[in-house]
Amino acid sequence: MLYPDNCEERLGFNEIRQLVHKHCLSTMGQNLVSKMQVMTRFDQIEKFLQQTKEFKSILENQEPLQINAFFDIKTLADKIKVEGAYLIEEELFKIYTSLQTVFAVIRFFDERENIYPNLEALFEHLPVERSILAYIETVLDAKGKIKPNASKELFDITTAILKGEQEVRKKMDAIYKMAIGNNWVADGSLTVRDGRICIPILAENKRKLKGYVHDESASGQTVYIEPEEVFSLNNKLRDLEFERKREIIRILIALTDNLRPYIPILLSYHSFLTKLDFVRAKALFAIDIEANMPVLLKEPKTNLINARHPLLMLSFAAEKKAVVPLNIGLNEQTRIVVVSGPNAGGKSVCMKTVGLLQLMLQCGLLIPADEHSEVGVFQQIFADIGDDQSIESDLSTYSAHLKKMRYFVEHASAKTLVLIDEFGTGTDPQFGGPMAEAVLEVLNSKKIRGVITTHYSNLKLFAGDTEGLENASMLFDNHKMKPLYILDIGKPGSSYALEIAQNIGLQKEVLNLAKEKIGSSQNNLDSLLVSLEREKRNLHEAKVKLSNQQNKYNNLIAENEKQKLFFEENKKQLVKDAKIEAQHIIKEANKLVEHTIAQIRQKQADKEATKQLRQNLQKGLQKNEVKPEPKPVVEIDHSELAVGDWVQLIGTESIGQVLELNKDNCVIAFGELRSVVKRKKLQKISKKQGKKIAQGSSYSGSLNEALSNFKAEMDVRGMRGENAIQEIENYLDKAIMLGFSSIKIIHGKGDGILRKLIRNHLKGYKEISHFEDEHLDRGGDGITYVYLK
Question: How does it assemble (predicted)?
Fold first, then answer.
């Protein structure tokens, strides 16, 4: 239940209704949008929200759901009910195309059974009567016109008309040539008058050609004569045309009679198309405002995360500005939030956002808030917004407010959402403040939920001392004297009246006099609030800075641990390999020594033989020595340098791969390290040799392999939205790690839904400097070109 009657208008829901209205394809869908009402049944609200969510998923994933035609079948079915009435060709074709849409939609969901259960419920138990299409197809062609062979009689009549027309044409051509030969004809060719083909004859020659004069020119110099020879033939043709019309009517009556038993089914199809158009319009609007389905609760409470006012969001989007998100919660502990702060600081927008999103949700619309937001169901929504003074009802502004307060107090309950803007205004503040406090106390005793905006200090104090009430303020930059539009829960806000007056240049004597009249205690309270806001903001900034530093520190520790683990593993492997090699060398050396000793004994210590054996032993040991590997001879390649080429830093043994070319500078990957080097300090080597040297280097293998396998473009066409986003996240991580400066994401054009989803996601990456459409010749807005920092 809404109170007052203009509650929807005050909260901006009428504009929401009009925006959804524009997305409808039919008048039936538009009628349903006009009839949208606030629902209070949890299961009903959930069903409507789930249907919209599923259709939104279909649109975002660019599923091949063909919805081409929506026509008012009910009106046509009502016409069929009348005995003797018949549908004309155009009306039959509307039924035909509408039913084609119905069957295409049913086939789409049958192929995706249980994927969209809430949408499938729209046509549950709905029969598929293709015989209706078969009846219509026997009479109408693909363009919706009567087939010449719709009946044997019609075919015969049509054939006779064609033959008669040929005969008339042949006769007319002969007479026309004869008249031309006798110079009877005026300028011009054969023409039609009163539906009959005539010859334009000069007035002085009209007695020379027998026939019927149908018309004459404005000057009277030309007359239009139907020759006597074709007059009777044309009369026969006209009779045949009448016969054809009668036969067509007979066919249409027979077809309409055949369709009459299917009236209940046609009405069911009408209902299905109407609901489908309605849900589709809501889903398209949800995409426009980037809406989601929150967690729906049965109890009357709410917790909005990153909520945005949809109308403000659309307005700002046209100006390329962003809306500051709202975070607010109403629950058993914090039932009423009293919002204070400066004028034009966003208090009313905050309150209206809560009210409008609640209205949208209980009307079955998705809301522009984080999907983890929690929103409950309220039985009543009361709003006191704006000035409802009335000359006719003899109501002043304050009287109008009091009338609403009386209704609120009498009818509010724990399941009521109350929204009051500028609570207590409209009368003497000395009396308006206490009156507002009394009303607030009674409403709080009824455990209502609500958002109230005010400038009154007594309401701020009351909220601070009363259980169930919570102060909140709209933050204000008192250095720049500009509102920040951020809701800060937990403390009241200053109105900044004196500061704003000073900023706009109000004279000092006026300001000083105002301070004296306000009183020192009020000035001290306001100054304290300003000081608290400043300290809170400084603390918040310090907290954010500390959090960033902590994240950076944690990332460095993680990277350090990763590098440490990598080196430890390499160290273990190297030691293991060295031990194996040492054991092998020792084993071979022992064999050689034992063999030499055995030979010396065998030669009985002959001096020359012993000398020779010692020389052999020395040569054998030298063979087992571990010698340093020779440095590879680098082959210089003098061709033009390009991305992906291997290069050597002149004067060193460092080998790397070119990642990017920028005029005189090059970005080179030396293993896991990237460096900018002057082009003149590099010399190009062959790819084969570069890869071979790099593979022999432990630090560069993994990077080089990743670089060679990585492509700077990704194709997500045909993917679902969620899968595409996940793939893009993994792809971007690799691109950033490998140091690429730009990448391409191919998503296709279609309806632009996948493109919009991807680009909105890319805005959240700090590593992305900007993105844009590809050149028109290479794909245009079907490809997003992303530039990395």
Answer: Homodimer. Binds to stalled ribosomes, contacting rRNA.
